[in-house]
Each structure stands twice: as structure tokens, then as C-alpha cells.
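Incident log, structure service

09:12 report received: a user says their structure output differs between two submissions of the same chain.
09:20 pulled the input from the user's history:
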Amino acid sequence: MVTTNLFHYKKNSWPPEEYISKATLQLLDSDSAAPPKQAWRRRLNSHANILKEFSVTFKEAVKMVRLGIRLWSYVREEASHGRKAPIDPFTRESCKPSASQGVPLGGMGSGSISRGFRGEFRQWQIIPGTRDASPVMANQFSIFISRDGGNKKYASVLAPGQHEGLGKAGDQGISSWGWNLSGQHSTYHALFPRAWTIYDGEPDPDLKISCRQISPFIPHNYRDSSLPTAVFVYTLVNTGKERAKVSLLFTWANSIGGVSHLSGDHVNEPFLGEDGVAGVLLHHKAAKGNPPVTFAIAACETQNVSVTVLPSFGLSEASCTTAKDIWCKMVQDGQFDQENFNCGPSMPSLPGETLCAAVSASTWVEPHGKCTVAFALAWSSPKIKFSKGSSYHRRYTKFYGTSERAAQKLVHDALTRYKWWEEEIEKWQNPILEDERLPEWYKFTLFNELYFLVAGGTVWIDSPLMTGDVRDSHHQTKEIETMDVNVIEAPVSHTKGAVNHTSIPKYNVANVRSADNDETSNAECPSKDESAVFQEKGGLSHLKPSPLQEPWNDNDEVGRFLYLEGVEYIMWCTYDVHFYASFALLDLFPKIELNIQRDFAKAVLSEDGRKVKFLAEGNVGIRKVRGAVPHDLGMHDPWNEMNAYNIHDTSKWKDLNSKFVLQVYRDFAATRDMSFGVDVWPAVRIAMEYMEQFDRDDDALIENDGFPDQTYDTWTVHGVSAYCGCLWLAALQAAAAMALQLGDNYFAELCKSKFVKAKSAFEAKLWNDSYFNYDSGSSSNSKSIQADQLAGQWYTASAGLPPLFDEVKIRSSLQKIFDFNVMKVRGGRMGAVNGMHPNGKVDETCMQSREIWSGVTYAVAATMILAGMEDQAFTTAEGIFLAGWSEEGYGYWFQTPEAWTTDGHFRSLIYMRPLAIWGMQWALSLPKAILEAPKINIMDKLLLSPSTRFALHETGVRKIATKAKCFGASVFHCAC
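09:34 re-ran on a clean worker, output below:
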């Protein structure tokens, strides 16, 4: 537990006064125009250095050559079908990664656009699983200022740097614009989901400008947080003696990134909406059969602000109106013609032609006066389609419908609601920002790491059910013969009292009925052998839905949610990584977290018999084994085709099932949602029973199998391992606690008896009087100090369960990790290296053992906090800040990678696992439900022999009572 006198060492403080003059701060200190005291900051003229990418050593390359050949062949094969491989190390982005990122735009799950700290719009992810990192340079804010009757004028794009081609004679494109801003007196301030850009006398020395970027990311608000929109609020303060006419210009290309603007058939149209909201709709016809996208750019007309538009302009001489034309028009008049609102939709663009639009907002600012101008951006792509045919409606369509004109409604609501959004954001953030115990760097890094829930590739759909004709018939007929997706379920019992331990008939998903109808749900159904899920005869009408497509609850409130492992590892909801990242969702959007767990609970009970070639060894297996937790929910057809990952056969991994049980119990304990607990309990039991096969010597402890059979998928493990063994011990304890609370006393006692036996074996085989050895084998790294060796203890403490080991062992292990894995690497300024030999040298057994994983480092820090080692915890985590986020670091802000080496070479940018920093916040402020959770004493008198094995007459149980509101409403039968 966290002590009250927390941190007694230097805080990393970035006061805004070091970046902005105090006088300017005072002038902007109203209406949220001034940046907060706690924010990540950068000067706009800072150099955005190119990042150094990871490369394997010669020794590692030799070990991985066969995998590389198979992976290369697989990537080519997928490309021949028009698909991307989930992992493709051979294709490089045309835009080299640089230290240029900033706060992304919009809410979650509706596509994302990022905005660099210097103002460029980049990292386009409108179509799920696709990304273009290059900025679209025509998308800009610009300013035009006129004083003294027009004798003194300023005109500049509000972004520093010079556009390529600037100064070309006769150029009609955006290089003809005024790229005059040096950025020397302009600064960027980020506190996700908001950002501030302060122009302190640029380009006009007597005009102070604040641009505030606001997105609707509001914890526990499952409506507005799904909206694809953002607001840009400009506050203008005139410090001069003359009245100033100021016009702001927002330009936007009809593009979804890359060269999509050249595909043709795009249309723009102006609109005049309610409450003074006016702008342009840009209808984009996406290529390759992807659903269309409509953008809206708008400004809000008020008594003091006039809004005009230019619905279309181009970037070449052939355009009727060129980029140079609009710049000259704005320099001369500061606005467009009012009749432009009446011109209707433009002609569709031709292939190779770029179609852009502009919105201008003009105002007069009196001497020593202040004015506010608000713009909004929205993008609407109501339908998403995955590459193998399944289509869904995005979450926001529940509130805005599926019309292409929804973007107009979105910008209207953004401009009329953004002040309320800010109030809600500040209510959420202020208690942490005002906590004097916490280091400054931690406060803003905590919030800024949440960028991933927007920019990491997220999909949030309206409903758990598919929409319309969701399957492409070509794929259906091609794949139907090889499909074997199955689920085993047991009947619902509405008997009150303790669990009855009876055998369970096998149920086929094709015959499962809704739990609303007890008669049909309990009916006798054919076994798997008698009735295939996908019938051989009868054509497509007999194609049955995947078990993951069945809703848990007809009164679904929040839809279903997917997020990528990373933008380079394109797999949805990768579970071994979600283990680290899920604290953020549980804390901020718990209903989403519970629905993800429900998806995986269904997956545990399902089987997909389609053949897959595993690339590490070249062997063939089935895609999804019943009882095994999947690695991910898929890539090209999530929920229907799980386990996009095919390097190893993850049905043999030793961490996934334990992680599932631990996450489910933590979520159950934190939310006290009995309906959730009842829903997922059968899957918890099956997940535990499945692991029995990996106990090779009947000591109740699972063993690893001499290959990288866990999240460290290049780091081989032999025998009992600290990482997987500790997770297993914690899972036994969590399963016992959950069983007791759900009335399954038999299974609780079974897990308790196994825990006692397994713990004894674990300590005997791995404890060395200082820490737990990496594994019980005899390899050169078996005695390595693994930073993540107490992952199970982390979850045990996070869920309010008793510690797995005595305090001396826990603190000794953590101190060893701190002294060696943290402090012996650049003096603790880089995070915790994964593996360290006891002689103080980095374990270079493989690429992952020598890497520093940002998310694991945060997890280790959270474990330290829970063990009362706050100073070590924040020193450990500060290394991630120093290496990744600080001005002297490597430039990983808003793109935190999975890993970096001790010399600062990154692997896999924009990665899920660094959300584990919210595990630290969880540890600092455990919820009341966790603190008051029922306690379980593992050392109680045991009712079963320690040698008792998990033994069921059948291999599965049915999900039960999906509508149960409390335990008494539905009790389940389990076999044993």
C-alpha cells in the first residue's frame, strides 16, 4: 500500500514560465487559453530528429534466418490476396519516423488523425488496420493581420519550417503560401486530450495567440468519447495601440492520407448550419472498395466573428482556383465571398487532381482587447469493412445515424459542447494534477500515454451484432469447406444454492438459443460429432455465426471495442499485452474493459479447426484450440477469425490463460459486477483446467516447453519459469477467490490445495535467497534477473488478494531488479532492461532479453508501489520519461514504442503496452471495492488432498445466466 509521505526526491518540473513570458501567460489566463502548469512542452522550432530503428545482431539473425524466410514468404502470400500480414518487418514506411508527434484528434474507435507538435496533420488511420504516417501539408491553419488602415500587414501559415519547393517561380501550390513562422517564440503544450499552441508575438509582435485543441475523450462517457471530431479554439489578445483585423484560415484536402487525394471522384460542398456553424463538407470516395468518408471543416459565426468559405480549390495551374489564388485573396480581403455558400456541390475531382477546401473566420480585435474564434473538424465513416468481408457500424452512428451528412452534425455539436467537454476533462484530471506528492513528469506522462487509445488504431462498433450482409461471398465459398468453428456449452440451471457438480453434455453453437428462453436454451442439442457448425450442404444459408458474434446482453450499452497491439503489429486486442494496458480501460472505461473480457471468455469456449502454419518452426496446427485463451481477436476478420499471430502456436503458451483469469478476477473485484462474474466463470474454469496438461511432474506447477512460449516470444524458457510460474500461482489464488464469491466451493478448495503445493515447488526451484531465477533450466541465462519476474504478484496486489510470497522475498526481488536491471543501465535513465546477469551485464541471449520494454518498466514500478517501495518505483518509471519523453530523450513522445535498446534504438512505435503506466495510478489509488474485497486465506484448512488434479467429466461448461443481475438469480452447473 502507498505510504502517505510519498516522494522525497527532486521533481521533474516544467513550469510554463520557462517557455512563455509571464506577461503573456497573464494575458491568456482566462477561458482555459493558457496552458496548464503540468504539461509536456516543446518549442516549435525544436528539431524533429529522425528516430533510430532497431536491428538484430548477426548472432540473432543466424538464429532467426528460417523464421525470416518463412515470414517473408507469408508476407508475399498475403499481399497476393490483397491483404497485409499482421507482422511485416520487410516493408518500410515512405515517411521515416521522426520526433514530431503530438496529441491526436477525436475520440476513440472512429478512425484517427494525429497532429504533430508543430501543427502538421499526420498518422492517418481512418480505415481499420491501415496507416499513413506522412503529413498532408495542405491541411493548415494560417493567419492574416491588418493594422493601421492596411499599411501594416502580416500573413503566415501557423507552422514553422519551409515547405519543399518554396520559392519556385510561378508555383501555384501551397509552396506559394507564406511559410514565415520561425517558431522561436512559439511553444506547444500537451496534456491529452488537449493541447495548446502559444504564438507569443509571432507573426505579429503585438498579437498574442493561443490555439487550444480539444477532443472528446471523457472517462465514463460512452457517448461523446466515441465521436470523431475535434475543436480548435483561438484566443487573440491585441497588445498594440491599433485596432487589428485578424482572419484565421483553415484549409483541408479531400484526402485520407498518402496519395488518396489523387484517386478522383471526390466532391466538396458548402453548408450553413444552425447556431452560426458554417463550413464545407468534403466527400471522399475511398479506393479498394473501402467505405466512403466525409470530412467537415467549420467555424462558428458570432456577433464579433464572420465566417466565409471557399468550397474548392486546387494545387496546380489547371485548377479553376489555385492555392496561390486563395492566399492572395486572403492577404487582400481577409475573407471569401458570401455567395460561395450558394454554389452547391463541386464537380467530382478527376484522377490525379487534388481537391481542397477552406474556411475563414474574421474578427476585429480592439487595442488591449481579446477575441475568441472556434473551428471544428469532423470525419464521418459510418461503416467499417474488414478485408475478409465483415462490416459493422461505428459506435457514434448510434447517436448520429449513418448519413454522409453526420459530419455536419458532429462539427455543430463539437462547437456548441466543447466547453462542457473541457469542464469534464478538468474534473477528471485536476485531482491528479493537484496532488503535490506526485512528480510533475509523472502527471503529464500519465495522461499523455493515453494517446494510444485514439492513435493506436481503435475500432468501436455500435452493437455486438453484424450489420446487413457482412460476409463477402467470394470469401465465404472459398473458406467454408475448411471452417470448423465450434463451442461447447452446458445448460443453464436456475437452482439456488451451491454449485452442483454434474457432467455436462456437449453443445453445438449452431443449436444454442438465447438465454431469454429457458425452454430452448436448455433443450437437448446434437453433439459436435452429430452436427457440424458449418454444414456441408445447403449453401451459404447454413453458415452459422461465430460464437463470438452472439451478444452477452441484448441491452448492450457500449458496443464492442478493438484496439491494436501496435501500428506495426496489426492484431486486435492482443491479450498478453492487454494484460499490461488494461488498467487504463478498467479505470476510465470499465464497461469497455468488461466487454473485451467477455469476448475472450467466449473465445475460450470456442474452437477454430482451420489449419495454420506456424512460422517459427514451420509446423501446422489449428487456428484456435478449445480451452486456450487466444493471442488476439484477429486481424482481417476480428471476432470471426481469431489468432492472426502465427509465429508460434499460442495454444501452447503458458501465460495467456493465467493472464485471463487474473484480469477477470481483478475486473470482477473492482466492479463488483456479479452479472459479469457469472457470465465469464465457466471460461475461467475451463482456462484453469486447460493448463493442467502443462504440469509435467504432478507438482501443481506448470512448466515451460523449451521455446518462447509466452509474451517474450523470442526468449526461450526451460522448465519452471519465474514469469509464467508466478502468473500461474496468482491465477490459482484469483480463481479460488472468485470461486468462493460465486459459490463454487469445491473448485475454490481445489485451487487452494494446488496453490499450496505449487508455491512450495516454485520457491524450491527458483528462489536463490535474493530473487527468483529466470527459469529452472541449465542454460546460460537460467539465473538471469528478469525485470518482470513478479508479474503475478503485481496482479495479486492490484486485485486486493494476499501476497504470493512473504514480504522479504517480494522486496528483495524488487530491490535486485532496481539495483541491477534499472540502475546498472545508464544510471537508471532508460527504464528496466528485461534481463540482467547476476554479474551486472545485460543478458544478450536474444533481442528481447537485452531490450527495455516501456510497458514492463511501468508494470515493475506499479509492483514496487504496491510493495511500499515508492522511491524505487518512480525512479524506475522516470527512466521511461527521460528516454522517451524528455527533451534530452530519443523523441518517442506520442509514439511510445514497445522496446528500445540501451543505445536508444526503438522497436515497434505506437504500441499498446505503455498504457501500463495506469497500473501505477491504480496502485497509488486502489478503488474502494478492491480495498474492501473479500479476503481469502490460502492457508485455511484444506478440504482436498494436495494431489487432486483438475478433473472434469467433460471439457467445457456453458456460459450462464447472461442477464443475471445478482448471484441469486442464476446459479450454474459445473462438472468436476
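09:41 both user submissions now match this output. Likely a transient worker issue. Closing.
09:42 reviewer note: Residues 666 and 799 are 5 Å apart (CA to CA). The longest helix spans residues 406-433.
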